[in-house]
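Hi both,

Apologies for the delay on this - the queue was longer than expected. I finally got the zinc ion-bound model through. Below you'll find the protein sequence and the ligand SMILES exactly as submitted, and right after that the structure tokens for the full complex including the ligand.
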Amino acid sequence: MIEKKITLVPIGDIDDSLLEYISQSIKTTFNLNTHLIPCQDLIGCVPEPVFGGRYNSTTLLKQFHECLPGKIFKLVAITDLDLYSPIFSCFFGEAQLGGCCALISLHRLGQEYYGLVEDKALFLSRCEKEVIHEISHLFGLLHCSDNNCIMYPSNNIIDTDVKSSSFCPSCNSLIERALV
Ligand SMILES: [Zn+2]
Ligand SMILES: [Zn+2]
């Protein structure tokens, strides 16, 4: 039986304090422990940038899935690479619905990306929302039409800022059932 914990894989130069913050958020939201593995354990080949220096998130997820080291319950890769998806219009992350692997990109989560002054607290809050959103997809949750719910899709950073980091009542009952 696979231990129910979330495996975090930093890809690139990801701050330890950010990983710690994400671990805490996962513990608080899902009551699940996390553990960290280096990306060398995962990636059999170096992802190639395509599409103007951006990386195809669907291809990356497929690569991760093929390179999983042993039995993994759920895995979230955290990268500063800039993503695009040919299927979903998402820049911030992608997850295999009801599956094992998710990916979030920090690239567009900082205010600096938008030509604004760095705001560490806002950056952390955006990271937390993206991680909770993608992990919830791994537990089978779909998008929600309530723009205050964490399962509302983020097509841009304003969507992320508007939504809260918690579930609406209906998504909350879905995630509670999924976590049993
Ligand atoms: Zn989503
Ligand atoms: Zn909802």
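Main takeaway for now: The pocket of zinc ion (ligand 2) is lined by residues 144, 146, 149, 151, 167-168, 170-171 (CB under 6 Å).

I'll put the files on the shared drive as well.

H.
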